[in-house]
Amino acid sequence: MKKTNILFSLALCASSIYAQDLTSKKGEPILPEANDWAISMDANPVFNFIGNAFNGNVANAAPGVGWLNGNQTIIGKKFIDEKSAYRALVRLGFNAITNKNLVIDDAIVTPPVFPAPAAEKQDELSRKSTLIGIGAGKEFRRGKTRLQGYYGADAMLWLNMSSEKYTYGNTMTAVAASGVTPTPTSTTWDTNTGAVISEGATGSRILSSKSGMTFGLGVRGFIGAEYFILPKISIGAEYGWGIGFQTSAKSKSTKEENDGVIVAEIETVAASGNSKFGFDTDLNQGTVFGFKGSNTGTASLRATFHF
Q1: Rounded distance, CA 43 to CA 69, Å?
Q2: pLDDT value at position 125?
Q3: Residue 207 and residue 187 in contact, taking contact as beta carbons nearer than 8 Å
Q4: What whole-number distance in Å separates Cα of residue 187 and Cα of residue 104?
Q5: For labeling, which of 77, 155, 286, 302 is most exposed (least CB within 10 Å)?
Q6: What is the rounded CA–CA span in Å between residue 23 and residue 34?
Q7: Is 62 exposed, middle or buried (0-12, 13-18, 19+ CB in 10 A)?
Q8: Dmax (CA) of the chain
């Protein structure tokens, strides 16, 4: 009877310790519960900061809070119960940027007398881009301690496109006349940065370009583990295996060109389009939305906050 009481007491103590391990000193639950929301972010900057704190360098920068994998994708969860959750992956990107540059006005024959400013006209480059990525999945969890394992699957689709439009202040004509010229002064742009590369006389200049729309579908299975270092705050890693298909339409560009007789707009196909199909692990696929190098997967170290 005495031995039974001792064993019963030890069991109660173990149960008490186990229960305390899953709640904070204030009684806060450590693990996620039904109806909790969660959002993940890249944990690498935090660990880099902690590691750098011991290297003797007094100029270490504070950690930043980055998007998961640095690809500007929001990853969130909605817990159905403590053992399962719905997942959402979202990236919505729309950009419209206009760059301007002043060039010499070709219509001015007589240069201005100092200190009068030179007459100028304005060239413009307008760039637009769209990137949409949407994913949804379900996660299942295992474990009764701070260390939690999980697994599940995500389905995703993505599309992106971009275009550039060029306008010029000086008019191009086939034959020189008053105020116009076959080789007008025009700006040459860097389409990636919008910076001016050069400006000068030209008989051929680009008017517009348009990338073919890229559309993709992917399905990804995943498995991961996380450890709750504080109530509702965990550090973990996730790996997966995905399969995807992506297709891109033709890319086109239009230029204005003078052949000495007429000025014509000429459309050319810059790329004839392509399609891709494949499957691979996340470590080779890279980020969330895209294909091979930016595909359906996230294998970075992550911090997850539940609330």
Answers
A1: 9
A2: 97
A3: no
A4: 10
A5: 155
A6: 16
A7: exposed
A8: 116
The phi and psi torsions of 42 (rounded to 5 degrees) equal -65, 125
Euclidean distance between the first and final Cα of the chain, in Å? 47
Cβ within 8 Å of residue 214, ≥6 positions away: 158, 159, 160, 161, 246, 247, 248, 249
Helix residue spans in the chain (DSSP H) = 2-21, 44-52, 282-285
What backbone torsions phi and psi does residue 62 show, to the nearest 5 degrees?
-70, 150
> Which fold, 31-165+212-244+273-306?
Porin (2.40.160)
Structure tokens at 36: 């909790």
**Is residue 14 packed enough to be buried (19+ CB in 10 Å), middle (13-18) or exposed (0-12)?**
exposed
Q: How far apart are CA 25 and CA 14, in angstroms?
A: 17
Question: What whole-number distance in Å separates Cα of residue 304 and Cα of residue 31?
Answer: 12
Pairing of strands 147-167, 263-271: unpaired
Q: Which residues of the chain form beta strands (DSSP E)?
A: 37-42, 74-81, 84-104, 120-142, 147-167, 185-189, 196-201, 204-210, 214-230, 233-248, 251-258, 263-271, 274-281, 301-306
Angstrom distances, CA of residue 248 to CA of 135, 200, 245, 274: 20, 35, 11, 5
Which pair of structure tokens corresponds to residue 182? 């076959």
157 pLDDT tier (thresholds 50, 70, 90): confident
Tokens of 145: 């301690």
Question: Two tokens at 97?
Answer: 């940027």
Q: Hey, how many other C-beta atoms are within 10 angstroms of the C-beta on 267?
A: 10
**Number of Cβ within a 10 Å radius of residue 259:** 12
The pTM of the full predicted model, rounded to 2 decimals, is: 0.72
